[in-house]
Amino acid sequence: MSDDSQPPVTPAPPDSPVHMSGTDHITIWGSNAEDTIAFYRDLLGMPLVLRQPNLDDPSQTHLFFDTGDGRILTFFVSDDRPSAKGQRGGVGAVHHLCFSVDPDEYEDTMDALEEAGHRYNVFDRGIFHSIYTHDNNGLVIELSTDKYEIPDDRRGEVLAKAQELREDDGAEYAKDEHLRGAIEALGLEVVEHDLPEASAGTGGL
Prior knowledge:
Helices cover about 20% and strands about 25% of the residues. It is an alpha/beta fold. Among the domains are: about 20-80, 2,3-Dihydroxybiphenyl 1,2-Dioxygenase, domain 1; about 150-195, no CATH class. Strands 5-8-7-6-9 form a 5-stranded mixed sheet, with helices on one face. Strands 1-4-3-2 form a 4-stranded mixed sheet. Helix 3 packs across helix 4. The longest helix has 15 residues, at about 155-170.
């Protein structure tokens, strides 16, 4: 199916009856509190900001982590659930979670994962760089960093413009030149981050 037959890609809100103001939180069925806190707080540095019973099932604990910008990731955990090594796919399943890493801490993040015994892969995804690893539940975790500085309030606009340039170029996916071109076309300052070399394009864990 060609891009011409797809719904348009645009940063403008659609003509829908409801509009969201942002992501409040995402909740995951987790294993136990100890392993979950060890990965998300002690390794990835997310503060544990709230802990209380699962209000729908008080036999479980509900852990709330701040992902770094006030957006919250929560887990239902129970001491009788061991950590897992794999996730089942399928419709409705979570493919992966992605969190942002400061470009200045990107290489330190790889070092920390290696020191903690977590295997990882690194990819140049065209418009950003990504580290892929697994959490204690077997869930794929992506840690991405921007190639260029992009103001948060212009991110959707920049990506939509990069999509437009990708289509004009006939490229399979958005690449570095499309993102840089979008930043330039929108009159933003081009500030490129110094990131390590990585495998390009498609692929995964």
